[in-house]
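Journal club prep — side note

Before the paper discussion, L.F. wants everyone to see what a predicted structure for a comparable chain looks like in token form. Sequence:
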Amino acid sequence: MIVFVSGGARSGKSDVAEQCVLQAAQGGSCYYIATADVLDEEMAARVERHKATRGASWITLEAPLAIDDALAQIPEGAAVLLDCLTLWASQVRYASELTDAEGQGVLESAVRMARSHRQHLVLVSNDLNEDLLPNDKETWRYLGFLQSLHCWLAAEADSVLEVVCGLAVEWKRKEPVC
């Protein structure tokens, strides 16, 4: 099962996604693929706060770029949260040698792998088009890349949730999710 959870910044996406994973795990281990690259004290504090909130039942794998490699380390049938696609996409564009097409290929490979391993994969991303519009070409290019990932993922996912004010609105469902 592939679930795509999107919404504006600080909308409650991660909380909704964590609940989906906990429910799918049915008391078993939950896996968290963290795409953040911790570069400063503020981000380190945020990461520690999130880890403490999730608790000890979560197994964290850090994968700022190689999300497909991280998924390969997780057992078949496991419940997995990938948080977040927004940070991962920025690292594909600005901290790697990957082209946008190669980055999309990594995402597609990860989703195929999750399906073949019968993993319950929940992917979180920010809908940055709900924020103020940028006025520079590079930000528009990044948003174009991110939105192309979102469109592909929404088409591929079994369920698509948008989180608004902590509430999940289900836009697509192939079977019950959360």
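L.F.'s comment for the group: The two ends are 11 Å apart (CA to CA). Keep this in mind when we get to the figures.
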